[in-house]
């Protein structure tokens, strides 16, 4: 009897490859970003858009990310897994991509801000840093 | 034991700091939690402030007439991290599918959790409750009805997970041989949240638990007791194929040009217009896809009586050709054609329910 691995599998090219379908769901988000950017510029109001709450069709998210592109700044955060934070081609528009420790995406946001909130050093961490640094520079005083 | 109680007594913020998680990491966790709870990102500071002080709630999970699909949905989720973090911060004290203990030891754990957390614990139920005969479904010799009533008595709230617990589901499908009822048919004096779906989306299950963990309260509910943030809009309204519906572009078969171009699946039986759920945005398998994106219409699994709501492949408004076919089928059962067509238009759901035939072992023997 012929073994399974001996059976030759031929992959036939399709005569009619899948047509490129544009669901155009990226365009409204780009308009939302434009409005948010105007509010940031004129009133200092920040906005965050949760892309996981948007009903994207196949290819919509890729189209949006392609239009936003990657700008001058790219930051990597390592806490509870990796996060990449990059300014897009449009200053003030940031793409924040959070992953868990297993490398799976847990959140994807667009933040319209001068600097994303999560990039700024947090008061609690600064307070903790003062204690640690003080302990390192003044071990005797710190022990007392 | 004392150490364990001390650990349980700590807030979520304290426990994360103990594990070396920075404030940035905590904010990232809150951002993912907001997304999971389908709350706007502007809520992140409020979520952070609440989660910082959150204590570890006790959860008792009861499984009745069910297929374990709901537990599978949750535990086989491919985005375990946020869910795991949530489960790190609740105390799952009883779940007979997941726990190691069984029999008397398992029931003792349930009773201990109820006693130690009187008035504060959450009861999660998957599966319907048979009222026809208590013997249809028992755990450790305790009927489902008795276990539900005694466990719920001291609970803060009940979460009915899956369409069976929320609305009766498959066990309640005509002719409902076990007399299956939903949790809310039994529990009248405690808040009940229905997280329907067959199975429900895992992040919707954890989203409700996260809401309780975060705010100490239950989310706003719709008229069927489902969380508005996940069930507030129909599949149809959030479907990426909706623009094709608006333009009148429909797939007529699963392999025609319309299907290949991703047109609307309404005429292939999609129940999106009458179904409220978060599939179109949350999606399945770590956001990979969902039924409509995979080319199949929505079955309406998060709605009551979806098993008896007619054929999965019949359009909600049946075109003429289908009416003729259905009417002919009903005619075979002795109903006049004109009356049948009118009845289909007036009440398709009850028509489908009444068309069910029960099959006995004897019938099967005769046919073979």
Describe the overall structure.
The complex is a heterodimer of chains A (144) and B (368). Chain A has 144 residues and is α+β, with helices and mostly antiparallel strands. Chain A has a domain at 26-124: HupH hydrogenase expression protein, C-terminal domain (Ribosomal Protein S8, Chain: A, domain 1, 2-Layer Sandwich). In chain A, 33% of the residues lie in helices and 21% in strands. Chain A is built from four helices and five strands. A five-stranded antiparallel sheet of chain A has the order 1-5-4-3-2. In chain A, a hairpin with a 5-residue loop joins β3 (82-87) and β4 (93-99). In chain A, α1 (26-43) runs parallel beside α2. The model of chain A has no long low-confidence stretch (mean pLDDT 86). Chain B is an alpha/beta fold. Chain B has two domains: 2-46 and 53-231, NADH:ubiquinone oxidoreductase-like, 20kDa subunit (Rossmann fold), CATH 3.40.50.700; 235-354, Cytochrome-c3 Hydrogenase, Chain A, domain 2 (Irregular). Helix content of chain B is 45%, strand content 9%. Chain B has 21 helices and nine strands. In chain B, the strands form three sheets. In chain B, strands 2-1-3-7-9 form a five-stranded parallel sheet, with helices on both faces. In chain B, strands 4-8 form a two-stranded antiparallel ribbon. In chain B, β5 (138-139) and β6 (142-143) form a beta hairpin. The longest helix of chain B is centred in the first third of the chain and has 14 residues, at 23-36. Chains A and B meet through β1, β5 and α3 of A and α3, α6 and α17 of B.
């Amino acid at each position: 009897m012929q073994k399974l691995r001996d059976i030759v599998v031929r992959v036939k090219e399709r005569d009619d490859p899948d047509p490129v379908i544009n669901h155009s769901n990226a365009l409204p988000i780009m308009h939302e970003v434009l409005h948010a950017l105007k509010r940031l510029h004129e009133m200092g109001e920040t906005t965050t858009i949760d892309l996981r709450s948007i009903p994207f069709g196949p290819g919509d998210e890729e189209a949006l990310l392609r239009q936003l592109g990657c700008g001058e700044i790219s930051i990597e955060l390592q806490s509870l897994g990796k996060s990449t934070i990059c300014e897009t081609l449009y200053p003030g528009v940031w793409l924040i991509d959070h992953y868990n420790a297993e490398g799976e995406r847990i959140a994807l946001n667009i933040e319209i801000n001068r600097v994303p909130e999560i990039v700024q050093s947090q008061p609690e961490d600064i307070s903790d840093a003062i204690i640690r640094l003080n302990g390192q520079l003044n071990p005797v005083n710190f022990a007392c | 034991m004392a150490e364990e109680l001390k650990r349980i007594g700590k807030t979520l913020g304290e426990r994360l700091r103990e594990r070396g998680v920075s404030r940035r990491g905590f904010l990232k966790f809150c951002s993912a939690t907001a997304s999971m709870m389908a709350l706007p990102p502007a809520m992140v500071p409020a979520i952070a402030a609440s989660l910082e002080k959150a204590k570890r709630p006790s959860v008792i999970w009861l499984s009745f007439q069910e297929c374990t699909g709901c537990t599978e949905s949750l535990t086989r989720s491919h985005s375990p991290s946020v869910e795991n973090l949530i489960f790190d911060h609740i105390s799952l004290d009883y779940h007979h599918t997941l726990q190691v203990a069984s029999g008397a030891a398992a029931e003792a754990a349930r009773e201990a959790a109820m006693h130690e957390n009187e008035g504060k614990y959450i009861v999660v139920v998957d599966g319907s409750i048979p009222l026809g005969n208590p013997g249809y479904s028992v755990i450790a010799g305790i009927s489902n009805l008795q276990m539900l009533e005694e466990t719920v008595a001291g609970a803060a709230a009940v979460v009915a997970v899956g369409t069976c617990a929320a609305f009766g589901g498959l066990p309640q499908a005509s002719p409902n041989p076990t007399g299956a009822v939903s949790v809310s048919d039994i529990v009248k004096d405690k808040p009940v949240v229905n997280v329907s779906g067959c199975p429900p989306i895992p992040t919707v299950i954890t989203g409700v638990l996260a809401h309780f963990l975060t705010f100490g309260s239950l989310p706003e509910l719709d008229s069927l007791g489902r969380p508005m943030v996940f069930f507030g809009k129909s599949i149809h309204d959030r479907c990426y194929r909706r623009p094709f519906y608006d333009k009148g572009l429909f797939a007529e078969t699963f392999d025609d040009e319309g299907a290949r171009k991703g047109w609307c699946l309404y005429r292939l039986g999609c129940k999106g217009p009458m179904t409220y759920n978060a599939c179109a945005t949350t999606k399945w398998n770590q956001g990979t896809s969902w039924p409509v994106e995979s080319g199949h219409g929505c079955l309406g699994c998060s709605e009551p009586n979806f098993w008896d709501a007619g054929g999965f492949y019949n359009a909600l408004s049946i075109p003429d050709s289908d009416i003729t076919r259905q009417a002919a089928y009903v005619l075979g059962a002795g109903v006049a054609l004109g009356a049948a067509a009118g009845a289909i238009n007036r009440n398709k759901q009850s028509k489908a329910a009444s068309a069910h035939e029960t099959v006995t072992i004897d019938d099967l023997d005769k046919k073979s």
